[in-house]
Input
Amino acid sequence: MTARADDRSPGGPRREGGLNAPDATFTALLEDSAEELYEQAPCGYLSTLMDGTVAKINTTLLDWLGLGRDQVVGRMRFADLLTVGGRLYHETHFAPLLHLNGEISGIALELKAAGGTRLPVLVTSRVKTGAGGEPMLIRTSVFDARDRRAYEAELLRGRRAAEEARRQAEADRERLQEALAVLQQSLLPSALPVVPGLEAASHYHTASPDLLGGDFYDLFPLDGARWAFFLGDVCGKGPQAAAVTSLTRHTLRAAALHDPDPVTVLHTLNTVLNERYTSGGDTRYCTAVFGVLHPRGDTCTVQLASGGHPSTLVQRADGTAEFLTTPGGMLIGVLPDAQFTPTRTVLSRGDTLLLYTDGLTEARIGPNRELYGEEALLAFAATRAPAGPQALVTALTGLLAGFGDGLDDDTALLALGIPSPAPATSEEHG
Amino acid sequence: MDVARRNNIRVTGRADGPVVVLAHGFGCDQNMWRLVVPALANDYRVVLFDYVGSGRSDASAWTEDRYSSLDGYARDVVEVVEELDLRDVTFVGHSVSAMVGVLAAAAVPERFSRLVMVAPSPCYIDEDGYRGGFDAGDIDELLESLESNYLGWSAAMAPVIMGNPDRPELGEELTTSFCATDPDMARVFARTTFLSDSRDDLKSVAVPTLVLECAQDVIAPREVGAYVHAAIPGSRLVTLDATGHCPQLSAPEATAEAILGFVGAAR
Amino acid sequence: MNPLTITTRDAATGPVLEIAGDLDHHTAPGLREAVDTLPLAGGQLLVLDLARLDFCDSSGITVLLAARNVAVGHGARIALAAVPSNTARILGIVGLDRVFTIHPDTATAVLRS
Output
């Protein structure tokens, strides 16, 4: 340390490069009396008799309290220095513990200063015992806890806010799920109509209760003799997809009532979606199968067209199964001049027509998470004894459940068929 | 639910002696009686327990519904007494527990023969013509104090009671639950205690009663002791030369003596 | 679940986007944005190289269609290269295999442009 002309160390003789020479100021500090250490400590000190009467108190604490020594020593009890709540806490927790343990530390209390202000403090007390082990007096240290209390208050506030936010989020989530369930219901028919001479069955599996799915289907009368059906899948999920689904259903229904030719209906839908969405820059499309049924007693003709949708399956009464392929059909809504391929078949008694969305065939199964696929579906339909639409849908529902989390997309099923004649009640044939 | 486990029942003293049930008040648990038990154990069968929500009771049995009213605590007492099939019971209740005892004795009078109320108060809040000692704002302050001490005290939640060579009866026992109640349960107990008003129940007392009060008690001031004594005809009032609200801790010998004197005399 | 990585480079014929990972509901917007911000001039060819595409669902299909619209809007063309078999199958079902120009790899796409 080099001395400088303006070195102002008080009481200190100037010295040259002297780290070793003791500074007189430092020495003066060391001669500080124990009394001064006690009185001027950075915390409050207090000694009380076992009944709480203050016997000794340091200046620091008196200054905090704004009281004079004469007012306190021999006249007040420790509990008198506390707020009412603190006094209650002192009686019910602090004092009992101190009696039983001989010490207690880190208790948060508030001192009542003269003038009414409150000082948050942390209190530590220890019982001093006499030579024979009998309790004689209580020595207490009092620490200013204003910052700490502010921090704790902040923590508590934060915790309460977090809990409230969580509660709110839970409530919101429940409300949302309820709303979605209602909306989802409105996008699908609540019940399939009864078609004379036909049996119909459907199933909808939603992969996520938090998101609206894009699958749709419907079955409705065209006139006294014919019925229309469709099943499809709008791309994406959520409210925008739901809006497309809604538009799609209404467009298909309206178009069918106007001209039920399946290819024409899909063209109409294509134009509507293309104009409404894709040409505006919001690419939306769907895939769908649309068809017309004409039941005639023991048979029913089916004319349908597909727009880029997985092939419709037919389960025949003789135990075979086949796909109605529609090569060349394209998804709906993207290209103004999309192509759709028609096909037809005839259903006889015991045959079932099955439409489905790709949630079924794209499900992942097995340890290698392979695709379930169309071939497997065909085999499934063929190996089950043909028992009509409801039985097939029920069996597929079970299959879907078995996929567990390999099924991660919504799936819709629609099955239509002519019931087999009920077995005639028979007498035993010889 | 096993009541003995649920209420952490501990029985000590003379197995064939007359029964004394010690009930703690708000604040801690049966350990409060630690210093008077030895004196009582010589001649009496002493039964200690923790209310559900305090001490080492089974917290899973706690419901806010039941323990928001003194009746819930009274049911604990009745269930303890019935579980052990106790008769001719001297019930010693500290602070609000004294009132719990009044309710329990009214419910099953055939089981209780004497009541000792240690620093009792039937109502803590001042009202027209009645001095309880506090106003509603004071109670809110207590609840705040409880909350900030939960946060500030979590490290000190496990006080160790160590043996004191001069007080061998303290023994050496690690208790991790003394005064360390779940903060929500403590809050409910505090509200139930300090917002209670059992003054009307005092007139149902039909057994010999001892009211023990401290000379200087901020929680149950002298006026309250006088009120309780007057409300129970035939009761005896003893004022201990002690400060604070827990004479069983600050003046255990005098407390034990007063209890023994009363129980012995009433036989 | 693999995140989506898009690597952009330039060929003589125009930008080539190499797409790796999963193209689904979550990652599709990322590709959409990349395509939207691509400087594409009329007459150029945009190649989407799908050699390292692991997964593609309907959101992925949507974004491929959107890319096509962007290209068309700029007066440019689009081609898909090295389409993985699963995606190719889906494109077949929905009829997009006749809508998109598909090449076995980028080199061929550039050569034949």
Summary: Helices of chain C lie at 28-36, 58-73, 85-93, 106-111.
